């Protein structure tokens, strides 16, 4: 654990959007919260935070860092730097790398690269099955016991489609309080699928990815989770029907959590009419009715968290025919802004709710909310100083080329979004100041 | 008109102009010397990412009859495999100074990307993209329908200046995978015709209820009640019925039984009704030999009309209305 000698006074910050206060960070923890203007600033670096909202550092349960294997699209260093710029202090790195993160060796490598980069805590996600092939369980226990301390397991990008294998995985991870994060996509119903199946796909002649292919798997999985008494996490839920099924499951007391991505909160399948592969993503952008349903689900707690599914791709994987392009879009640097636009500025979530859906709840699901490196904690004296300052009044126009991530495939390109991350602190050390990442890396270790 | 990407982009006036221009072009084709000087010195590239000898030679003939230089660029394979990317191909054609690019592509939307991605200045003419659109096929179908059902009936020559108001067209077969069906529904609707799609439910796209047409699962009922003036049979690919991603119908025999145009169904058509097929036909599957070879079938004429329609499209894209050579037909 690195410790940082600088004491910061965040002057006039509004914890969770409340009354302005001075917040003092010292020795990696929140040392003091006093009335605005009351903190002793001698020997401290003052961060003027007038009007800015102070949130716990954001925690992403669903990030693709691409390393090892596709360092041309993103590396652990570039991706985590982008995460810090987006206000994150922890990310869960998905397992669909090359080689796949299906052994203790690979997850420990990713974990170590995260520590070396120093921008955020990197928690590797372990593959559920060997090589993501959906045939036999990977060594989940070894990954859980490794230095990477894996608790979230996912074949994300592919669905654990075999019901028996899914049942075994749900059961097996109980031994170490793990969770299976399912990419819900019935494979036979989505062969060759390119976009949401509906009015737009029919018109523009792209093979459809029907909502039922997601909903059928979620329905099966919540029943399996109930049957074997396990917890289940549903990745990037995208349809109105999926919201209904999770709502029903929760009403039955089934231990299920669900996430929605920023892009599914804002964008619809109408964008495919441009045939611009920037808008090609899996699960696909859905209809306006689905967007409304996921917003409602997030507002009423059916959907527990927002996770980015940050999926960087090289230019050549996107500068081509829609049918040949890769699925995925970047999201780390726009997630908070999209949540502000769709949920806060519309009055559906408070900033305290934002802290829950982007920090506390994902940390709890990933079981990284306790111990010396705890994330997703309250903004309170004595807690680790993992914090994000956001200026909700700022507006900025998204430019993929100007982003920190190594890839330019942001679907929000050219959009003006509200809110800007002004500063991020990881255990009291600034990773972002004045809206700019602060050089870290080897120096801090 | 800078590009011809989708029949859904055409106004009624533009569609009628295309058909009327095609009629003018067709008239020149009965001359002893068929070649016109209109596009002399201009270059048309036939860019084919998917095999289609018929469509390619139709475009090639059309361009040559207008005296354009024609370059055939076969780019089979795709950027998925190790072929050159669409972007690099477009940049290459741009560098070579193509004036128009006729593109056939397996990927829906590829012509739209070529027209809008900024890789290329040339006009783009969609010669069929994935399961999206095939505008010149729909135009030649409309031209053929107009010639037979408006021109010959109303006595106004080839039907020049007319739309297709009041005509009823049944489009039968694999609508789901058909760019011909999509292109025809949009164009026939714009021209005022009434369209009924006939297909087994498995071959009807989700969302079809928003299309400007009716949908029927029963060919016999449609023939009896809708009483189409024209019946357009779509090609059914045999692989659609096999397993895997197929399985859209139980067997070719069953498909033919319910959706094939055979002698029995042919006999039920109104006297003036015509039969169209975009080719190539599966005789004995979607259309019987009796139907294909009957007097009602205008299938061979469709091919001839295809050249005239493609001449018209190339002419309007490349020479434009205000061209000095505009009257030089």
From TrEMBL, chain A:
GO BP terms: 'de novo' UMP biosynthetic process; purine nucleobase catabolic process
Keywords noted in UniProt: Hydrolase, Metal-binding, Pyrimidine biosynthesis, Zinc
Binding site for substrate: 64-66, 96, 282, 313, 327-328
UniProt cross-references to InterPro entries, sorted A to Z: DHOase (IPR004722), DHOase/Allantoinase_Hydrolase (IPR050138), DHOase_cat (IPR024403), Dihydroorotase_CS (IPR002195), Metal-dep_hydrolase_composite (IPR011059), Metal_Hydrolase (IPR032466)
SUPFAM superfamilies assigned: Composite domain of metallo-dependent hydrolases (SSF51338), Metallo-dependent hydrolases (SSF51556)
Cofactor note: Binds 2 Zn(2+) ions per subunit.
Residues annotated as binding Zn(2+) 1: 62, 64, 156, 309
Keyword Metal-binding in record: yes
Active site, per annotation: 309
Molecular function per GO: allantoinase activity; dihydroorotase activity; zinc ion binding
Any one GO cellular component localisation term in the record: cytoplasm
HAMAP family (UniProt xref): PyrC_classI_B
Name of the molecule in the record: Dihydroorotase
From TrEMBL, chain B:
EC assignment: 2.1.3.2
Enzyme class: transferase
Gene3D superfamilies: Aspartate/ornithine carbamoyltransferase (3.40.50.1370)
Residues engaged in binding carbamoyl phosphate: 54-55, 104, 134, 137, 279-280
Gene Ontology MF: a single term: amino acid binding
Single Gene Ontology BP annotation: 'de novo' pyrimidine nucleobase biosynthetic process
Record domain Aspartate/ornithine carbamoyltransferase Asp/Orn-binding: where: 166-317
Keyword annotations from UniProtKB, A to Z: Pyrimidine biosynthesis, Transferase
Top-level lineage group: Bacteria
Residues that hold L-aspartate according to the record: 82, 179, 235
Pathway participation: Pyrimidine metabolism; UMP biosynthesis via de novo pathway; (S)-dihydroorotate from bicarbonate: step 2/3
Catalysed conversion reaction: carbamoyl phosphate + L-aspartate = N-carbamoyl-L-aspartate + phosphate + H(+)
PROSITE patterns the UniProt entry points to: CARBAMOYLTRANSFERASE
UniProt cross-references to InterPro entries, sorted A to Z: Asp/Orn_carbamoyltranf_P-bd, Asp/Orn_carbamoylTrfase, Asp/Orn_carbamoylTrfase_sf, Asp_carbamoyltransf, Asp_carbamoyltransf_Asp/Orn-bd
CC per GO annotation: cytosol
Domain Aspartate/ornithine carbamoyltransferase carbamoyl-P binding: 2-146
Protein function: Catalyzes the condensation of carbamoyl phosphate and aspartate to form carbamoyl aspartate and inorganic phosphate, the committed step in the de novo pyrimidine nucleotide biosynthesis pathway.
Family per similarity comment: Belongs to the aspartate/ornithine carbamoyltransferase superfamily. ATCase family.
HAMAP family per record: Asp_carb_tr
Oligomeric form and interacting partners: Heterododecamer (2C3:3R2) of six catalytic PyrB chains organized as two trimers (C3), and six regulatory PyrI chains organized as three dimers (R2).
Protein name: Aspartate carbamoyltransferase
Species of origin: Isoptericola sediminis
């Amino acid at each position: 654990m690195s410790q940082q000698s600088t004491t910061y006074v965040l002057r006039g910050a509004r914890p969770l959007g409340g009354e302005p206060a001075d917040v003092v960070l010292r020795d990696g923890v929140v040392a003091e919260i006093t009335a605005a203007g009351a903190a002793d600033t001698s020997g401290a670096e003052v961060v003027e935070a007038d009007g800015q909202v102070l949130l716990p550092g954001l925690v992403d349960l669903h990030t693709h860092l691409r390393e090892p294997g596709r360092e041309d699209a993103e590396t652990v260093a570039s991706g985590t730097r982008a995460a810090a710029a987006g206000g994150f202090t922890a990310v869960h790195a998905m397992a669909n790398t090359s080689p796949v993160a299906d052994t203790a060796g690979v997850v420990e490598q990713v974990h170590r690269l995260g520590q070396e980069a120093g921008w955020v805590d990197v928690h590797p996600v372990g593959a559920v099955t060997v090589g993501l092939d959906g045939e036999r369980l990977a060594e989940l226990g070894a990954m859980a016991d490794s230095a990477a301390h894996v608790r979230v397991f996912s074949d994300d990008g592919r669905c654990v489609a075999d019901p028996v294998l899914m049942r075994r995985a749900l059961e097996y991870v109980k031994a170490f309080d793990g969770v299976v994060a399912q990419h819900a996509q019935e494979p036979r119903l989505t062969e060759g699928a390119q976009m949401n199946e509906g009015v737009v796909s029919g018109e523009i002649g792209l093979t459809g990815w029907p909502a039922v292919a997601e909903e059928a798997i979620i329905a099966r999985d919540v029943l399996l989770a109930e049957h074997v008494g396990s917890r289940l996490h549903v990745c990037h839920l995208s349809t109105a029907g999926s919201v209904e099924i999770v709502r029903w499951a929760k009403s039955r007391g089934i231990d299920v959590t669900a996430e929605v991505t920023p892009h599914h909160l804002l964008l619809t399948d109408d964008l495919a009419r441009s045939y611009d592969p920037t808008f090609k993503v899996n699960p696909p952008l859905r209809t306006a009715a689905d967007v409304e349903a996921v917003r409602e689900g997030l507002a009423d707690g059916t959907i527990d968290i927002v996770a980015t599914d940050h999926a960087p791709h090289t230019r050549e994987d996107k500068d081509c025919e829609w049918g040949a392009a890769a699925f995925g879009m970047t999201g780390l640097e726009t997630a908070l802004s999209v949540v502000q636009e769709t949920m806060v500025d519309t009055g559906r979530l408070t900033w305290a709710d934002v802290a829950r859906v982007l920090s506390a709840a994902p940390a709890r699901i990933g079981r990284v909310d306790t111990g010396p490196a705890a994330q997703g904690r309250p903004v309170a004296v004595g807690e680790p100083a993992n914090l994000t300052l956001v200026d909700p009044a700022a507006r900025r126009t998204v430019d993929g080329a100007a982003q920190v991530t190594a890839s330019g495939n942001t679907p929000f390109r050219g959009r003006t979004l509200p809110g800007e991350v002004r500063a991020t602190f990881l255990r009291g050390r600034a990773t972002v100041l004045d809206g700019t990442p602060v050089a870290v890396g080897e120096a801090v270790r | 008109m800078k590009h011809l990407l989708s029949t859904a982009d055409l106004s009624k006036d533009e569609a009628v102009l295309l058909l009327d221009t095609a009629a003018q072009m067709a008239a020149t084709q009965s001359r002893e010397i068929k070649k016109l000087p209109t596009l002399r010195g201009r270059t048309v590239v036939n860019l084919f990412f998917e095999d289609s000898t018929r469509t390619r030679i139709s475009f090639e003939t059309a361009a040559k009859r207008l005296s354009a230089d024609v370059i055939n660029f076969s780019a089979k394979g795709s950027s998925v495999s190790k072929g050159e990317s669409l972007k690099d191909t477009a940049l290459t054609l741009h560098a070579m100074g193509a004036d128009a690019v006729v593109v056939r592509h397996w990927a829906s939307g590829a012509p739209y990307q070529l027209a809008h991605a900024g890789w290329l200045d040339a006009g783009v003419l969609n010669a069929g993209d994935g399961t999206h659109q095939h505008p010149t096929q729909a135009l030649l179908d409309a031209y053929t329908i107009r010639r037979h059902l408006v021109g010959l009936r109303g006595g106004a020559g080839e039907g020049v200046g007319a739309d297709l108001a009041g005509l009823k067209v049944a489009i039968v077969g694999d609508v789901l995978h058909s760019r011909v069906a999509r292109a025809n529904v949009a164009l026939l609707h714009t021209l005022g015709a009434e369209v009924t799609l006939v297909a087994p439910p498995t071959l009807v796209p989700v969302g079809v209820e928003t299309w400007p047409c009716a949908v029927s699962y029963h060919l016999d009922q449609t023939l009896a009640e809708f009483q189409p003036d024209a019946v357009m049979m779509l090609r059914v690919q045999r692989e659609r019925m096999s397993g895997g991603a197929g399985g859209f119908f139980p067997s070719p025999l069953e498909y033919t039984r319910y959706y094939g145009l055979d002698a029995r169904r042919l006999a039920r058509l109104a006297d003036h009704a015509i039969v169209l097929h975009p080719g190539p036909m599966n005789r004995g599957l979607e259309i019987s030999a009796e139907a294909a070879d009957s007097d009602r079938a205008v299938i061979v004429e469709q091919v001839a009309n295809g050249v005239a329609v493609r001449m018209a499209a190339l002419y309007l894209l490349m020479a434009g209305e205000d061209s000095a050579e505009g009257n030089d037909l």
